[in-house]
Design brief:
The chain is α+β, with helices and mostly antiparallel strands and 334 residues long. Helices cover 46% and strands 8% of the residues. The protein has 11 helices and 6 strands. Strands 3-4-6-5 form a 4-stranded antiparallel β-sheet. A two-stranded antiparallel sheet has the order 1-2. α3 (70-88) runs antiparallel to α4. The longest helix is centred in the first third of the chain and has 40 residues, at 2-41. It binds zinc ion (ZN).
Length: 334
């Protein structure tokens, strides 16, 4: 009897222990669910923000990549809206925690700017073709739109190019130029040769990727000289423009020197070739783009070697008025 009483006492104790454990478990589960719900309903912040000084480069890129075409911005907004009502119905929990996160990320546009490190922070959306394709204005404020289509023709010092030899070492002088500028450039080079001032095409079309590589190299070189990153970026842009704002990115801008010379130097202004170009380039539709007395207007250093194709009519008018391209576009719009 005593044993039975003992064991029933034991059972009672055990039962109460079990029920305590179960109660504890229930309380624990309830607390856990509560915590989970509380964290879920918190607004999901964008990834950890780092101090601006540390991440200037990244920030430049981020700011620009959010400047996506309007259509994709709208897509982002509308998908955020469709997600939010279900989050408000927090009683019915549909745990899809990754969904709200992805809608907050900038949509990848598949644009040629996606992998560009340095993009102009001052670029504004604009119709740069409103005065015609060959009169497009590119500078710190105006960059190539993401839907830009290249129309390039191969060039080997004015000779036609056999595709078979493209990229061969012997043919490394092969360049690409915009189709509209091809024949005028060819005529100008032929006539310069006849006039006894043979020319060299040093640089023509340059891809956005190469531009970014060169720009980055330039920024890094200024940083290694002790400049801050923002100072380095501004200095780099004075001679190497941001990707998408260089005329070389279109195939309408050309660096031209004396035949056989490849080093760009302001001493080119003392050559017979430069004098010939200053007198004759407009007859083929080319202007000196970055003149000595227009550095404030263009934001670019004096480049006696850089010529831009705008077409004969505009080239003559620009020279007659004594304007740079920036001023000429303003003049057309006044
Ligand atoms: Zn140039």
């Amino acid at each position: 009897m005593a044993d039975r009483r003992k064991s029933s006492k034991k059972n009672k104790k055990l039962n109460s222990k079990i029920s305590t454990i179960i109660t504890c478990l229930i309380v624990f589960v309830l607390i856990f669910v509560g915590i989970t719900l509380a964290t879920d309903s918190k607004p999901t912040d964008s990834p950890v923000k780092t101090p601006e000084t540390e991440q200037t480069t990244e920030k430049t890129f981020e700011e620009n990549s959010t400047k996506a075409p309007e259509s994709s911005t709208n897509e982002t907004t509308s998908s955020t809206v469709t997600v939010e009502p279900s989050t408000n119905n927090s009683v019915v929990i549909k745990p899809e925690p990754t969904k709200p996160d992805t809608t907050k990320k900038p949509v990848s546009t598949g644009s040629f700017y996606d992998s560009v490190k340095y993009r102009s922070p001052d670029a504004v959306p604009a119709d740069i073709f409103k005065h015609g394709r060959t009169l497009m204005l590119l500078n710190r404020q105006y960059e190539l739109p993401e839907n830009f289509k290249w129309d390039l023709v191969y060039w080997a010092n004015g000779n036609s190019v056999d595709a078979m030899y493209l990229n061969c070492e012997e043919h490394n002088s092969v360049k690409a130029v915009d189709r509209a500028a091809y024949q005028p450039l060819k005529n100008m080079f032929a006539d310069a040769e006849k006039a006894g001032v043979p020319l060299q095409l040093v640089s023509a079309y340059r891809s956005i990727y190469l531009q970014d590589k060169l720009f980055t190299r330039s920024v890094n070189s200024y940083i290694s000289q002790g400049y801050s990153e923002s100072e380095a970026i501004n200095k780099a842009n004075y001679s190497r423009t941001f990707s998408g704002t260089s005329e070389h990115n279109t195939g309408l801008g050309f660096d031209i020197l004396e035949r056989g010379k490849f080093t760009l130097s302001t001493s080119f202004e003392n050559s017979a070739q430069f004098r010939w170009l200053m007198e004759n380039a407009e007859n083929y539709g080319f202007i000196l783009r970055y003149a000595k007395d227009k550095t404030n207007e263009t934001g670019i250093m004096y480049e006696p070697w850089h010529f831009r194709y705008v077409g004969v009519e505009h080239a003559k008018e620009i020279n007659r008025l004594g304007l740079c391209l920036e001023e000429y576009i303003e003049y057309l719009e006044a």
